[in-house]
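ESCALATION

Customer reports they have been waiting on this structure for their group meeting. Please prioritize. Original submission:
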Amino acid sequence: MDKKVILISYGSAFLVGAIRENLTKAGYDVFNTIPVMKDVERVRNISDIVIFYLGNYLEDSGDFLVYLRDFCIEDEKELFVIGSFEEFEILSKTISDKVISKKFERPINIKDLLFALDDYLAERENGTRRKNILVIDDDVMYLRSIHDWLSDRYSVTMMNSAASGITYLAKNKTDLILLDYAMPIADGSDFFSMIRSEPSTEKIPIIFLTGKNDKDTVSRIMSLKPNGYLLKSLSPDAIHDSVDQFFEKERVRESLYSSGRKKK
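Update from on-call: job pushed to the front of the queue and completed.
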């Protein structure tokens, strides 16, 4: 597997250095360049993966952004962007989300970036990719646990509130949401209703996570018509198996649907 990336950055030497160091440790050859057209042009053909580290220089980089957008489209580059919400807003005036493979808001979790890069390379090599799972739970310890349980096979993103989940989905796609039913402020049912009411997210599968197994709780959960629910008390293997089974059922369903369309 050819693990090469182009890292475009300017300033923020410590943070960019940390990203470069972690990528190198993970086996990537990193070709660092500044956001200047002639410099990027020198490494243009080295890799089809571009990591763009944003900064306060964006306002004065209009010509470069047009160049970056055009060459990513022409060369079919995978563009991964790291920055702040405000920087994403500036970038969007020139480079639309359709051109960007994934955004990472600072402070970045390097593991999430590595998962995204590995997913792309795996998809390019054998036509498959990791499924993306968004886990929303106010219990940080449980988030870390479920991340560890599932990240061997899936790309797992963790959010500790419904609000952060909404913000994430505004910029990113996911194949499944594992959602804590009982959360403070906006609980799982509120978040579920918001997701189902938006055309852009209404079809995302949602499985509730719950610490309660009593009849009333289960009845309330299922009345919302989610794609299922999982008890938090289940063993790591049981949770992993349940997620595996869900995606296998989805694969079979999609296969049958495609076959039916072909027959018509």
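Sent to customer with the following note: The domain at 4-126 is CATH 3.40.50.2300 (Rossmann fold).
Escalation resolved.
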